[in-house]
Fold:
Amino acid sequence: MSRQNKELRLFVSKVALLLLPFTLIVVSYVVCDPFKVIRSYPDFYRADEQFVMPNRDYASTELFVRNYPVYSYDSFIFGSSRSLAIRTGDWEQYLQGASPFHFDASDESLYGIHAKISYLHGRGVAIRNCLITLDADTLSHVQNSDGPLFVKHPATSGMNRVTFQLEFAKGYAKGRFLVAYLDRRISGKFRPYMKGFIEDRRFQHLPRTNDLYFASEDEALGADEEKWYRGRQQIFYPRTVTSESSPRVIGTVQLNDLIEIADMLRADRAEVRVLIHPAYDQKSLNPQDVETLRSIFGRDNVFDFSGINALTSDPHHYYETTHYRPMVGRQMLAAAYGSAVPGVPKITAPKPAH
Amino acid sequence: MLFNSLEFLLFFPIVTAVYFFLPQRFRAWFLLFASCVFYMSFVPAYILILAFTIFVDYFAGMLIEGAEGRQRKYFLVASVFANVGVLALFKYYNFLDWNLDWLLQRFGRHTPLPFLAIALPIGLSFHTFQAMSYTIEVYRRKQRAERNLHIYALYVMFYPQLVAGPIERPQNLLHQFYEHHEFRYSRVTGGLKLMAWGFFKKVVIADRLARMVSRVYDDPWSYQGLPLILATFYFAIQIYCDFSGYSDIAIGAAEVMGFRLMRNFNRPYFARSIADFWGGWHISLSTWFRDYLYICLGGNRVSIPRWYLNLFIVFLVSGLWHGANWTFVAWGALHGFYMLFGLATGDLRRRWVDSWRLLRWPRLYHFFQRLVIFALVTFAWIFFRARNGVEAVYIVGHLFSGVGRKLIGHEQLIDSSVLLGEDRASVAIALGFITLLGIIEAAQGKRSIRGEIAQLPAWSRWGIYYALLFTILWFGVFNKTQFIYFQF
Structure:
């Protein structure tokens, strides 16, 4: 054997040894498919399989693609996980013969909402009713998100599918996640250090409408609500805000995206409502941003529930400081579609001049 | 195709494997093909510009070699004119147009020249300078004209150093394309280790810092004081890690295939003078300017005022080489000023050091020198990074705003603004890796880290390799951030 061949063999064997851990990571990733993006899944939220919260954007889009031929959805709720408090079942009561779908995503951005509506528009899906739920955070992000929980489905973002898959593979290979995931998978136990990576909550998912309920929380609240809140007093910090509003977030890019969204919805003659989330921190969306939204979507169609009001004052309206409960969602729908909610500023909003 | 992309992760091993398996007579052709693929992955049409300069310089080289007397000079001038012309058209035309228009507006007129909506071809300044070094060396009779067009084309287009250097000289690189490179374990692994170190600097440090730097420098008006100082410090580290990381990957990739490229960085932030700094920063460019501009202007074999002027011109041109913007000119001028000030006050400073007997504590004195040079270089980076002169002036004017109040305790010194929009963990990780880099670079001054690692027992060596790879994987920022120097 020549010297070159000997050295080549030595090199190949050492590279194989060096890459062995990485190969094992790749193999375990493909076998486990923790984010459920490699293979097709009939249910993304099966309790016995769920160690990791699936990418909600991916799950929602996949479900839409699969179900649209059957249910011909014509009404959509867009927004972040906060929008989960607005259930399609409650919304349907205000719509006539509609087929609603909850088209939300974790940490949804204006980019994501724009991409989804463009996708529906491009597929020729006529939108009859549309609920856009947002806050300053939603409006501030105008590019695709990073990371396995947040990156958008390639069908809506146009992202290269290989790059999309790599986002998940990289997320899996991150040290703390990998250790937590394998520990949970092998031991079958949830340990405190896994929080943030591994799900210990249970969800109830409605495959037809894509509604997602916080099942663990709802059950605990149903059993003893006061006890539940007593145990979480440190989470519900006292609010000290008096009349603070977020800085302006609608810039040129946001403005263009919002105008394009409004144009697409107008082309479909959709009934649009824009609901601004009642955030626990009681910071209101910047009044100029609210005004911009009203000028684009119509003064009567924008409902600002942010800031200090009856919905945000009571900690019992929240699961934690990020997500409000469906009872709040129902009140928001009532305000947007008819009956008033005391303390919510929209009700006093001036009528447009004719 | 960026080095920090998936495409390159596939491209590099495939090209390297095919290169070694091919018979020698096909290797140069194959490398040329691979280099074309590499370059065309950015903007395919721009390969035509490259082809133009390759043809011009290939024939110019042969004409210069075959000519005598003044004819040689004419051919050289024609070749340089063609190269500089391409650079002027694609890089400086709009800059000249804007400035001419601004000037004419003072007299109520406008320039009749149209604005050209063209993007700057990737790495134009690098391969143009490399091509020019060939014709100049042939003119100086230090290099024979290359007869094989594909070998000359490969000299200009060799993919590891095509888009951001090192800017090679024909004497160093051309003959290597005729050499037969066998697969050598030690050389291949040496190259791969250098590439891994380059990736570490790029994706773990530079791209992590880039987020914080961009946040401030893309909207400097929202900041003053400590955030501006930190963003500027981070940029100094970012640009070093970005560019030296690129150079390490380029040199390492070439080394794997058996090619030796010139060193491009040598611990510039440990320099004790501005001249030292330029001896360690972008060496292939600073030596290019020394060999082909500074010496042509007369170098230091002229009167002192003319010598100073020569140096200042070189720094101004170096600034302009980096970009068609007055901020780059200001950056070059600032370095020129530092250099001249250092030369003019050299004797005075030496006397001052002697009278105070500062060399009694040489380490402390050298540390102080390094600190001063680092501060001066970092200050100059403000002009390099700022998007325009107005923002640069704002940043300079507000670098220390409010810092005094904080120092005397009226306000909290460290608040959330110093995180520059990142969380504490991310900033801590960045600072941790900057410290690690500093320690390793400091150690490299005394001995070769690669040599030291090679002496370690196998388990420690492998531990280091795994640690480096997992650090890149776990702490790397993989968002396809372009290398800063690609734009030049």
Remarks:
- Chain A touches chain B at residues 3-4, 7-8, 10-11, 14, 18, 21-22, 146, 162-163, 166, 170, 173-175 (CB under 8 Å).
- Confidence is low (pLDDT under 50) at residues 341-354 of chain A.
- The longest strand of chain A covers residues 129-134.
- The longest helix of chain A spans residues 3-32.
